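Cross-check.
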Amino acid sequence: MKKSFRGILSIAAAILASALVAGPVHAQSCGGDANNDGIVNGDDLATMLSNWGACAVSVPTISQVTPNSGPMTGGTVFYIGGTNLNSVTSVTVGGVAATILAAHPTVIVATTSASATDGAKTVAVTTAAGTASASNAFTYIFGGVTPSWATLVQGLPDPAVVTDATLRAAITASGLAWRVRDTATQIEMLLVPAGTYTMGCSASNAIACLSDENPTHQVTITNAFYIGRYEVTQAQWTARMGSNPSNFPSASAEVAAAQVPNRPVERVSWDMVQGFLTAAGMRLPTEAEWEYACRAGTTTAFNNGSNDDATAVNIAWYSANSVNQTRPVGGKAANALGLHDMLGNVNEWCSDWYAANYYASSPSTNPTGPATGTTRVSRGGSYFSVLTSVRSSFRNFTAPAGTLNNIGFRAVRNPS
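Predicted model, tokenized:
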């Protein structure tokens, strides 16, 4: 043991003697300038020996990420600026490991890997001293089509929102962005993919269908369309039309003043709605499109996949829970497409004329309703509807000039 210790001292002495004999050496050549005086010599060795032992290691920081976006396929070379980055052990983007190309104290060069989802991601750098992260520092860009009238919110469907796997696959296969915001109106819209479903009668455990809900029949919607994630609100209507016709423009014990603008607009006739929609390049859904979007893959009375009448309170504001007033949109659970309030809150205008016997002769592809009529279809039930009316297949109708305090609407846009 003594021999080993003496050997270490001998080596240290030899290094010190060598440094003293050799004289100063510029730090740029050797990188051993322990006392930071611009040269390496015996003073540096003395400084090192006097500080022998464990050293405090500085944690990394991130100040910028450049570029801050790239395709979901990966392969984007990006630079992370910050401090204490030279001992990096890993870099991740959205939890997915990136390939480290080079690392220096103030910059890391890396390449992104492919991502299964688009949108803004957290960039994280891990070193021996810890981990630094920067939220929303890199955005994976969806490679599909965002309509020219829209601002992209998220390209691929979020499984937490679009809970039906078949619908997610159909949305992705369409090549269209899933979630967008209409640039002119700021209405958030979700893509409904083309598909086939059974339209008509869905009785609940306690409620039978009415005659105009029959016969059930297969309907194919051949073109994908965008539909409002929520019913059009009082704020959105007022911003475009200049006034608020609604019967519920004030706060209540159940709705705070700050949330009143998010109540759905009502007391808007079918005719009035056309002015809002035409100016914005939008339209109403057909009755077949409305039911297809409402069902979101379900065949049950309620669009939560249940025939149990007791479950309606989870998805709809109606006579049993509304306290006889509209509620801010989005307060109840969404369906499997991510659409809120398709049932309850306010009835929603559709583009079709109404006829009680229409289903007996309805086309199987893209039906648009009778050629003429005296009333227009509205669907979904409202805040003062009984449970009968908040089933997916229930049909209602009103004169197109009617302004009732339980009828509003939901906007639709074609992808192009």
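Residues 1-29 have pLDDT under 50 and may be disordered. The helical segments are 2-22, 27-30, 42-50, 165-174, 234-241, 270-280, 287-295. Passed to J.P. for a second look.
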